[in-house]
Here is the input.
Amino acid sequence: MRTIFFHDSYDKKQSSRPNAVLSVDMNNNRFATGSIANPIKIWEVRSTENATEVDFIAELDPVEDANRNVNIVRWSPDGNFLATGCASGAILVWRKSSDISPSQSEDEIQPKEQWTIHKRLNGHSLDVLDLAWSPPMYNLNASKQSNNKENMQPSSTAPVTSLLASASFDSKILIWDPLSKSEKKFIIEPIMEIKGDHKKAVQGVTWDPLGHFIATQSCDRTVRVYQINQELFTFFPPAPTSTPVKKGKKVKPTSELCSSVEVIRSCSIQEDEDKKVMLYKDEQAALFSRRLCFSTDGSILVTVTGQLPERLAPQCNQKEEQCLDTAYLFSRNQWKKPFCCLPGHNEPIVAVRFSPVLYQTQDGQGYGQVYCVLSKKSVVIYNTRITHPISIMKDCFSETISDATWSADGNHLIVSSWDGYCCIVTFDEGELGLKLSLNGDAKVIHKIMDQRAKGVQEMGVVEENVQKQPVTNVVAVRRRVHHHNNPPNAVVTVE
Here is the structure.
């Protein structure tokens, strides 16, 4: 495992610190960073046998925000669009417009691509704190409207799109369709607004990779799960049909896109007790984000800023803020009570990100999923098949960790921080396990989906067992490399 640190805005002559990097997101071998008072930047990672290098690709200036504060960046599933959420409440969706001819100047690094604003999304009045793209989904509503003119039922010709969910400090969740080919306007409105459910800032939103659920987390100490109307948008291809609609029969009007399924606030931890405990920290924790996450196969929802009840941690005092920090894991469709917790953290957990790669078990009969848990000062990597961490990285940054992202092949983990630096962790092939190859085979993917419930049960994760696991594999960074105006190519060895 190799680690490098970089950020290009550090100015040694002026002794100024880099501005905070608030978000990072990766698609294939490219990643984007959002920062305070800085343009959005797109980078490209190149790995060799002995080094990991980063090339500067493009700079996106969010002129819609006077202060250029970008809180969140997220790539669309196809990697052709980049959604960015600003402190002004604006959401900008970018696309590549052209390549740039290389400059003859050697004084500074020139961008290689030009990106322009594709759509501007208006709807939030305060900071946009999180964004989440849906998987590619069939727009059955558009198909109904089109086929209704020909008196035909919706078919597999339904257009495919990716929806975008946004969470904001104004306590609203908005859902957008910015990639719709039928939408010709530059400034678009949300297709649905969820307002009044959360009473305070919504700091995290995640989309189920199977397209059925959206989950949100707020500093009002709740996690809310919403179900997507599968008659409007669905992940699975609709069955092709050409059955004529009877004369005079009209297609039903469009109903709501999603509806509330569950509000997760408290639960009774032990079966023999009726007393419920609050699962999450309140706004006094002073956290910028609470970025929860669905697992790669959609079988698990991991929620953040959890607090471990005293009865599971006898060493805690009566005061709530002195209890252990944790993350809670929920099985799909079982939102009443978490099946697992991850104690042992000394600071509140602010975000979780899953690797897009599935890893085979040693017996070849199942698979595990690797994910990282971010607290203020540490990054802990887990596998869903075991209860103890794979690796723990501590004190890599001087300020709070803000976000993390995985490469498509699972070999790179990039972590950003409020101190203005990014850390790239490179894993050797096979270091995290034997990868399960899907190769886009729909039959294999559906088979894995059918085995979700079995996979969760096989993990055998029990709260009491998790609590007894020691903290192992502490990664010690030997040296830290600062990069100024040049792309980084140095490597930090780790123990």
